[in-house]
Amino acid sequence: MKKNTVTFFILITSFYASAQNLFPKKLDGCTTDKFCLDCGDVKANVDIVKFNSLISGLNRTNNLKGIKGRVVFQVLVDAIGKGCVLSYTDVSEHVISRNIVNALNGFDGFIPAKTNGKNEERTSFNLSFDIQDGAISGKVDRVDLNAFKKSFDKPNSPEIYNKDYVYNNDNLKNYRITVWNTNNSSLPSNMNDLIAIDKKGIIWLNADDQFVRFDGKQFDVVEPKNDELKKPVEVYRFATDSRNKIWVYGDRKFLSFDGKKWTLYDQSKIVINEASKMIFNEKSDELFICSGRGLTIVKNNTWTDFNRVKKYPFASVYFAKRDSRNRIWIGTFNGSYLIDSIGNCTSFNETSSVLKGQCISAMDEDEYGNLYFGLYEYDSKPPGQINRNEGIAIRSIDGTWKQFTTSNSGMPFNNTTDVRYDKREKVLWISTDRAGLVRYDLKGGWENYHPGNSGIPTSYISQMAFDNNGVLYLATRQGLVKVERL
């Protein structure tokens, strides 16, 4: 093939089953806590005059001789019209595709989607660019939602990046794996990303855009609503506390349910209207709400703006959790931090620990005080690398650190979605979004369960939770999964 003669390879009809990204070339840098897919009474769009100007600029500045093809870009647009490219179809990563990404990321002509006259918080839609006869043309491509959901509703094959470790999976025979999906139960959708289990054993899930309660037999759709609300809240985040109260966030509102009624919290008093994560700390009886504002702590019905109290150096918080020594571990997309028991703050980017350059994305603790972390490398080198320098980190009670990745352990893939310590078996469970479920015995033994070797129905596992009996539940893109010791 001659130089500059390129055909762009696209995957339009078979969406790549990854978190929130439609197309195989995925980009970092967008805030993707929660968004809807081409939604709204009035859908997201572009100012046609400015878009035509963008097209003209691309035609002037790119050498298009001998090039033909089509590339589709998934763009995330927020409530004020700021856009960010999430993914695109050109797996060859041609320079013209990269130039289009740069142009779209700097474009000021995006128009937010609206529902009931109000701008959607975040929505994604598609723009396609065709190159024919030495010229680029572009247009809005609406998403076929039915085709999208259908394409996601299938198991995705495992992607094992560790080619050196031999997985014998000797303990797999000791577990019973049960799956609830739309074919064998009343679960309304197989796309489950979040899970929480209360003290009564009730399992709370999101099933696509519905909030679901599961008592072990029946899945029931729950509509968070009280007399102050005209319509139920669409739930984006939730957590349960020690009193079996369920806390939810959605549509820029916070509510809680005590088993009898829903309480809506006055935003003028709580001074927060967003959440990227909600995490309950059982030992301290606190609800942590992570958001772009920082960290908000709810305890005894008092809402505290943690950042404002101490004016800590971080603003946007992705993850936060308190350990048994009263320290708060915080992950942001600018680094990870530790707040000790008297309020002193340590930035790990100023240390040589394994947390340097990492965002804490998950955390658990064993009965001895050892800490287990999931990591996200927010500034990967090179950019766009899939199997990044992440994996898990373990901080022993003596203060020493270890990081386990595909290069020095049995980790099958380095991006983890959750970590959970099993105090009954003394093992660590690790979930991934490409390689399924990992069992680490903390002594050097690694096992990897996925659709190719077990009853786990998909390689994409979003979140995990234990019930009071130590049974592990998985929220996956193929339904709810129970992993039970025989």
Uncertain regions: pLDDT < 50 for 5+ in a row? 1-19
Shape: globular
Specify the CATH architecture of the largest domain.
Answer: 7 Propeller
Class derived from helix and strand content: mainly beta
The mean pLDDT is: 89
The total domain count is: 2
In total, the number of strands is: 38
Percent of residues in helical segments? under 10%
CATH superfamily placement of the largest domain: YVTN repeat-like/Quinoprotein amine dehydrogenase
State the helix count.
Answer: 5
The Rg value, from CA coordinates, equals 23 Å
CATH class of the largest domain: Mainly Beta
Termini separation: 58 Å
User: What about the largest sheet?
Assistant: 6 strands, mixed
CATH fold annotation of the largest domain: Methylamine Dehydrogenase, Chain H
Strand content: 35-45%
Question: What does this protein look like?
Answer:
This protein is mainly β. It has two domains: 25-152, no CATH class; 172-485, 7 Propeller (Methylamine Dehydrogenase, Chain H), CATH 2.130.10.10. Helix content is 9%, strand content 38%. It contains five helices and 38 strands. Strands 1, 2, 4, 5, 9 and 10 form a six-stranded mixed sheet that branches. A four-stranded antiparallel sheet has the order 11-38-37-36, with no helix packed on it. A hairpin with a 4-residue loop joins strand 4 and strand 5 (83-88). The radius of gyration is 23 Å and the shape is globular. It starts with 24 loop residues before the first strand and ends with a strand. The model is unreliable at 1-19 (pLDDT under 50).
